[in-house]
Amino acid sequence: MIQLSRSRTVLLLSFLVILWGINWPLSKIALSYTPPILFAGLRTVLGGFILLGFALPRYKQLRFKETWVFYVISALLNIIIFYGMQSVGLRYMPAGLFSAIVFIEPVLLGLFSWIWLGEAMYTLKVIGLILGFVGVGVISSGGFSGDISAAGILLALGSALGWALGTVFVKKIGNLVDSIWMVTLQLITGGIFLLCIGSGFESWSSIEWKLPFIANLLFIAIFVIAFGWLAYFTLVGSGEASKVGSYTFLIPLIAIVCSSFMLHEAITLKLLAGLLLIVVSICCVNLQLKPKNVKGELDSKSNKSPA
Fold first, then answer.
1. Which residue from 123, 117, 128 is spatially nearest to 248, judged by alpha carbons?
2. Model-level pTM?
């Protein structure tokens, strides 16, 4: 297990939540210049090749013949399913509702971590996960207008499921692979696959290579994709996956705050109410009340020599 200091953990969590939060309005802006699957492939491939520069000096840790299947599975879950379904699904329903459904992921992650990673599941944690999801729903309820399709709901649920399973899988095999190579190859592998699919169903000529799109694409590829995923898996490898996942409930909040400035969307009382629920959720998931061992304390006192 990777050991992180408290200050580094806070720094990585802050970086992750802010960057992944701002990714939603940035992606919404970018999608006005490009088809969805090609965009998903472009940002992940670029992110992967950026990290390749950091991974190559660690070529001895790659051990590709023994570990290639891990990279393929991770790419399938975390890139192809998560980003592919996310990019297409945003075309089928309002972004607020889609985001709320995708961010059932921490709840699924808490459940899967309990089943497959043996992480503790206690009443306070269950309450926290539920409150976090409710908080996301309250925040995103402003976007519940418009047509809601079954396809959009299924794509959002599939995106959340892929992300949760991918996180548990990476945590499970974390000691068998190098973390930088894991992130790098899942991005490159998944991105190339998405580009192939996009090339078959979408047109490259539809992409408007204007400065706002290029700047947006590079920012997302470098900070959101490359360093964002690296920070996420570093945090997951340093502690309980479900506790790290609980902080991702903050991402829709950051997304809406950023959207209010970038896309002129309103901040409402629902946002403040959702924030309160999310803060309580994180406290519940990360706080485990342990009953005092009265018998143990009495035994310890009885074994002490008299002064």
1. 128
2. 0.79
